[in-house]
């Protein structure tokens, strides 16, 4: 097997793992389930990822481009964040590593800890710094960032984890934009 084929096989395995973990949760998915979906031997999963735990960790590497949304004037923050959120939620359904991690956080304490730490570092803190730099005092910036973070996580949990309908993307984006902006403005 060439390195290029190995890399393609690993990516195929990860894609199927993300989808299966997102749909069924960590506990319900077996290495064999992922191997069957990816049309590979379960031994390859052990070889590439060390087993189910390693596969899960690889499948839940997450990036949130909050820094793309926290530039510019505060009056447009809601619009920028909402556009980024809706793009993520509708971009690759069932394969979003953040969705996988959110769903697993109820089953696995280490997933919950990883999710909390990740969100603190990659969403809450950049948002706080942005609001602080936009002229708010420290306490106000912290409370508004926390309110936005809690709102987005709550909506994400309700709509994605509990599997409520996301609805029309344009309507959802407009609603998120207005609500986030109200929270940012206090």
Automatic annotation (TrEMBL):
UniProt keyword annotations, A-Z: DNA-binding, Transcription, Transcription regulation
One Gene Ontology molecular-function label: DNA-binding transcription factor activity
Coiled-coil segments: none
DNA-binding region of this protein: 30-49
Domain HTH tetR-type: 7-67
InterPro entries (UniProt xref): Homeodomain-like_sf (IPR009057), HTH-type_TetR-like_transc_reg (IPR050109), HTH_TetR (IPR001647), Tet_transcr_reg_TetR-rel_C_sf (IPR036271), TetR_C_16 (IPR041678)
A Pfam family hit: TetR_C_16
Protein name from the UniProt record: TetR/AcrR family transcriptional regulator
Lineage: Bacteria, Bacillati, Actinomycetota, Actinomycetes, Kitasatosporales
